[in-house]
């Protein structure tokens, strides 16, 4: 179940347009068609009293309203709500897409043979912004994703290490979600997406059209770095309301965590005409000086992506990774998930009841202390074991 609504601004514009148009038409008809005294006399036969005048205006308004509704709902018109001052969801629930079990973690839990996992740091980052999480499983049909998204307020594509050409995996599920999200937004139902690192790359590859050759380049970026903002970044949706002290930290300190060997560069957008739909808001440089896109947003849809990892400063602690844990790093990286959850509050989807919510939320699963096993993730959630469930206690 989901709620579809349009902004009060659009509603008021329609009302004013219809009313004024009806008045203008009647005045034109009165002054133009019935300009002479003879015609005025004839007019009395057409509109003998005030009630008939009101009836005529009502018919005109009905025709105009029908025309406006047709225009706003035709396939060629896309109306996506960007702001609503009154309709706010104070209980947002965000879906986080799982991905194929990593080779390393599979070796730590061979008996269970889990289908997929989610690093707990993404869940904590969303919860810290005031939302709850529902895990989205891979390998399901389109109806599963469509039904689940009708209950969620947005979807998060996490980073990780998986391939986009694996059947029934992260990329296939992501494609269903991406296409359904576009359909919802095209229908006026505000539905945000956010991708981090691998999730950011997935957004662009899905927008490009998946093929044998993926629309990204190889690079090497395993350092903390600042953001090089575009000149007009302050007019973007993501950064328009960002506090100045946050911007200064991001622009001048090495606080964004990069851990990727693929990059999206400007040429990737230009080669697929994506620069018309997607807006780059900042760049960073990899360890060899290659400039890559660090943050991006869609011009029409509430779709956002960052190549770096905002969650790691607060929630990942592997010493060898050298993640920045300063107060400035935590404060600046906190902004991104706060922004996304704020976007998700504009969506009014909901579960049918608290009981149904309880069946889906991630609290049905217990994270395991994978950091103690050498994983770069301090904790992980695992889903759908295909083998025998281990008797090892959950930590």
From TrEMBL:
What is the name of this protein?
A: folate gamma-glutamyl hydrolase
Q: Which family does the entry's similarity section mention?
A: Belongs to the peptidase C26 family.
Which Gene Ontology terms cover its molecular function? gamma-glutamyl-peptidase activity
Tell me the keywords, alphabetical order: Hydrolase, Membrane, Secreted, Signal, Transmembrane, Transmembrane helix
What chemistry does it catalyse, as a reaction equation?
Answer: (6S)-5,6,7,8-tetrahydrofolyl-(gamma-L-Glu)(n) + (n-1) H2O = (6S)-5,6,7,8-tetrahydrofolate + (n-1) L-glutamate
Task: Supply the EC number(s).
Answer: 3.4.19.9
GO biological process: one example:
tetrahydrofolylpolyglutamate metabolic process
Active site as annotated: 197, 309
- Where is this gene product found? Secreted, Extracellular space
Does the keyword Transmembrane helix belong to this entry? yes
Q: Is Membrane included in the keywords of this UniProt record?
A: yes
Q: Which InterPro entries match?
A: Class_I_gatase-like, Pept_C26_g-glut_hydrolase, Peptidase_C26
Transmembrane feature ranges: 12-30, 50-72
Top EC group: hydrolase
One Gene Ontology CC term in the entry: extracellular region
Chief subcellular location: secreted
């Amino acid at each position: 179940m989901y709620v579809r609504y349009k902004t009060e601004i659009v509603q008021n514009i329609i009302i004013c347009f219809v009313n004024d148009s009806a008045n203008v038409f009647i005045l034109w008809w009165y002054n133009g068609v019935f300009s002479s005294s003879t015609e005025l006399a004839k007019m009395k036969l057409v509109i003998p009293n005030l009630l008939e005048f009101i009836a005529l205006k009502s018919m005109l308004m009905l025709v105009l309203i029908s025309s406006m509704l047709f225009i706003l709902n035709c396939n060629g018109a896309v109306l996506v709500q960007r702001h609503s001052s009154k309709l706010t969801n104070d209980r947002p629930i965000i879906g986080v897409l799982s991905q194929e079990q990593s080779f390393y973690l599979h070796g730590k839990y061979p008996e269970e043979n889990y289908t997929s996992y989610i690093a707990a740091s993404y869940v904590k980052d969303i919860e810290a912004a005031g939302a709850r999480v529902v895990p989205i499983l891979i390998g399901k049909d389109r109806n599963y994703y469509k039904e689940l998204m009708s209950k969620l307020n947005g979807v998060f594509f996490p980073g990780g290490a998986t391939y986009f050409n694996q059947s029934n995996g992260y990329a296939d599920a992501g494609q269903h979600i991406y296409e359904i999200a576009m359909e919802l937004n095209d229908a006026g139902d505000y539905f945000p997406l956010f991708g981090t690192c691998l999730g950011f790359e997935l957004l662009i590859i899905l927008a490009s059209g998946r093929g044998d050759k993926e629309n990204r380049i190889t690079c090497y970026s395993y350092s903390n770095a600042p953001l090089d903002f575009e000149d007009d970044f302050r007019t973007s949706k993501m950064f328009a309301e960002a506090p100045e002290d946050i911007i200064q930290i991001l622009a001048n300190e090495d606080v964004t965590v990069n851990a990727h060997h693929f990059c999206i560069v400007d040429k990737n957008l230009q080669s697929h005409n994506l620069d018309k739909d997607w807006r780059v808001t900042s760049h960073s440089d990899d360890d060899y000086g290659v400039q890559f896109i660090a943050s991006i947003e869609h011009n029409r849809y509430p779709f956002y992506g960052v190549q770096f990892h905002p969650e790691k400063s607060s929630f990942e602690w592997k010493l060898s990774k050298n993640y920045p844990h300063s107060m400035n790093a935590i404060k600046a990286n906190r902004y991104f998930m706060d922004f996304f959850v704020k976007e998700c509050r504009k969506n009014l989807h909901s579960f049918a009841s608290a009981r149904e919510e309880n069946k889906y939320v991630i609290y049905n699963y217990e994270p395991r202390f994978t950091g103690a096993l050498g994983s770069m993730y301090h904790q992980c959630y695992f889903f759908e074991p295909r083998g025998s469930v281990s008797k090892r206690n959950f930590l």
